Amino acid sequence: MEVTVIGGPASAEQARRLAVELGAEYVPVEHKLFPDGESYLRFVADLKGRCVVVFQGTHPPQDRNLLQLLMISKTARERGASRVLAVVPYLAYARQDREFLQGEVVSIRVVLHAMRCAGVDALLTVNPHSPWALEAGGLESIQVDVTKLLARKAAESHGPFDVVGSPGKKGRSMAEAAAEEIGAVPFHLVSSRDPMTGKVEVRVDGLDVAGKRVLLIDDIISTGGTMADAVRGLLRSGAREVIVSCVHGLFVGDAVERLLGAGASALISTDTVPTDHSRVSVVSELAKAVGAWASAKR
Ligand code: R5P
Predict the structure, then answer these.
(1) Quick one: 224 and 275 in the same domain?
(2) Which atom of ligand 1 is nearest the CA belonging to 229?
(3) pLDDT in tens, 217-256
(4) 269-280 pLDDT tens trace
(5) By residue range, what is the domain housing residue 247?
(6) Which of 105, 187, 244, 249 is 20 to 30 Å from 211 at the Cα level?
């Protein structure tokens, strides 16, 4: 089945590159904001019977980017697309994946429901916060893991590293995958989050990092608080140098200054959230996944 890639305003350049890699038709979206902040979107293409890829990240401004994704997907469906694959490298609202405190809205469920209602059949994301929440969302879920790619690029530009560490529940497997890729030793940073204040505490107890070059890796950096704590702890424990890496670099507010101020020597992230620190492109990985999805639908 023929694939058409529609480039949403949040991801137009990456979408164009994806279309080139796939040898697919590319449809740009004309976009402007009305004086009151509402989005105007326009795209012209014959979509009847086509497999349509709507490429639109939901990085900040999340609400606008998400709504535009829904608007484009629904319209593609109305114009006869036989299938819609939403390519959303950074999926917003994924961290609230359960009711931690009574009465909280589980935002990821709402987002996935809205996508289904807008006619999205399948969702392709990169290192989602909660793989299981996506699998339970009623959409076909395709998840690309770029941990090894990120570690390899970090080692090419800053390596070699002696050890690779990662905080959080998923940290253990992420550190193991990254360390295996670059021939380093993995370790896990114990982190805990206060559900009321959201404050995260990271512990590096009992870890021998004296004189070592450390690569820290995480799925998301938002405020930088978790990683800054980890950097400080590692340097206090005698680490020679700490480089910070992440898949989704939101770098909210003064996150970058915070990380560098804590003693990180460098920051490296992928382009799932396009910033000045995006050093690793995930487009080729996305192209492989989209190609496999389209072939399976033939
Ligand atoms: C948590 O589950 C994630 O893996 C990150 O550790 C967290 O989102 C980082 O947040 P912040 O940068 O605000 O500490």
Answers:
(1) yes
(2) 14
(3) 999 999 999 999 899 989 988 899 999 999 999 999 999 9
(4) 999 999 999 999
(5) 147-280
(6) 249
